[in-house]
């Protein structure tokens, strides 16, 4: 999504449509957790997670300069010193190695230009016990009112992530229109 789609990310109906509060409540965050919001966009998740990790860090990773600028401005406006905005690339989130407890991609994975390279870079940035969460619109459900190219199936996610060193540790179906797929590093 280009930065021109920022209004859609901040739409008034998003909580009702996606139940963001429930998704965040299920992240099992600790006060000192290090979270990477990869493809943060406007920071919809970033700025809701940051207060839940007051001694931790939230990396807001974005590749688009317009979003990076917006994230920096919003961070200052909200005075959230535990948010670090990171300019990522198409192939890497540009995060320190073995530093992240939880990386999240909210409706982002299916948009990646270089998924293999990004997954490998994320794998390196996760701590040994770190996890990767994909929230993706359910491709298996034709009633989800999202274009098919912006949806992802569990089978597709499993195939791609298992080929890149991840195993599914938790799959939940509590969200109205998205998969909640939590991966860990393969043993």
Automatic annotation (TrEMBL):
Task: Please verify whether the record's keywords include Transferase.
Answer: yes
Could you cite one Gene Ontology molecular function of this protein?
A: methyltransferase activity
Tell me which stretches of the chain form a coiled coil: none
Q: Which residues form the Methyltransferase type domain?
A: 37-132
The superkingdom of the source organism is Bacteria
Could you tell me which SUPFAM superfamilies the record lists for this protein?
Answer: S-adenosyl-L-methionine-dependent methyltransferases (SSF53335)
Record's keyword annotation contains Transferase: yes
**Pfam families reported for this sequence:** Methyltransf_12 (PF08242)
Q: Which UniProt keywords apply?
A: Methyltransferase, Transferase
* Biological process (GO), any one: methylation
What is the designated name of this protein? Class I SAM-dependent methyltransferase
Q: What is the lineage of its organism?
A: Bacteria, Pseudomonadati, Bacteroidota, Cytophagia, Cytophagales
